[in-house]
Amino acid sequence: MIPYFEAPTLDLGGLTIHIFGVLFLLAVAVGPTVGVVAAWRTKTPVWPIAALMTLVICVSLPLSHVVYVLLYQPERLASDGPIVLLQLTQGLSSTGFVVSLLPMAVLLALVTGRRAWAVLDSMALGLGAAWTVGRLGCFVVHDHPGTETSFFLGVRGICRDGWGDTTRACHDLGLYELIASAAFVILATKLIRSRSVGWAALMLLLGYAPLRFGLDFLRPEASGLLGLSAMQWLCVPMLMLGLIGVGLRLTFPPEEDGHPA
């Protein structure tokens, strides 16, 4: 099992720099960079990727924090006031992020017409890279402890009801998503380089939806409607959208498919 560790901080004489904040900013920088480079290498329009990443920063990140506060920490809103809604590094909800991100990505890609699949691939790779760095931040601060486990990737001392008790270990859901997103980035890069157009974006939907659906059963928080969390309910239309996308991709293959870059 993974031993307990605390996230490092850097004290600069009254200014304390937390590793999560550094990785959060790094994720914001890495995502657009990787997406734009992927578009440039495949001669795909760059402006939709740049527009999406701008919208992610201006819309998705603030909305994901608002949803996080409302779903998981409503008492903070009551005690500290609306200012907590502006503290973006104090918790982000995947539910709010995905709800805003998916329609924006699809609409921006459709504007490009025949290059829509290639644009979606570049977007997916950029988002996957950003997600990897972001989940690294979640892991180093143990932001998403799960239920108790004897699994070899369990982390000692992070259980919610026994923080610091190294005789017990719990799932670290941030670590699991870190591993999955890093694997996605590797596979998506290979697909894009081989010009298997559209499959990287579809793999993101078809891979993340069932993964997240299963991981949420390992959360110690109380379940929602019919025993499922808000994100689990969102995984259902995500999976359906991915399956519809597979059908469209097979029925109407893009012209550039199969021609390596």
Q: How does this structure look, described?
A:
α5 (116-140) runs parallel beside α7, α6 (173-193) packs antiparallel against α7 and α7 (199-215) runs antiparallel to α8 (230-251). The protein is mainly alpha-helical. The strands form 2 sheets. It has a 3-stranded antiparallel sheet with strand order 3-5-4. It has a two-stranded antiparallel ribbon with strand order 1-2. It has one domain (16-144, 177-251). It has helices spanning 19-41, 47-72, 74-80, 94-111, 116-140, 173-193, 199-215, 230-251, and strands at residues 9-11, 16-18, 145-148, 155-156, 169-172.
Key terms for this structure?
261 residues; mainly alpha; three-stranded antiparallel sheet; two-stranded antiparallel ribbon
Short characterization:
With 261 residues, this protein is mostly helical. It has helices at 19-41, 47-72, 74-80, 94-111, 116-140, 173-193, 199-215, 230-251, and strands at residues 9-11, 16-18, 145-148, 155-156, 169-172.
Topology:
Layout: E1 9-11, E2 16-18, H1 19-41, H2 47-72, H3 74-80, H4 94-111, H5 116-140, E3 145-148, E4 155-156, E5 169-172, H6 173-193, H7 199-215, H8 230-251
What's the pLDDT, averaged over the residues? 87
Q: Uncertain runs with pLDDT below 50, 5 residues or more?
A: none
Helix and strand sequence: EEHHHHHEEEHHH
Tell me the major beta sheet.
3 strands, antiparallel
Distance between the termini: 42 Å
Helix count equals: 8
How many domains, in number, for the residues?
1
What structural class do you assign from the helix and strand content? mainly alpha
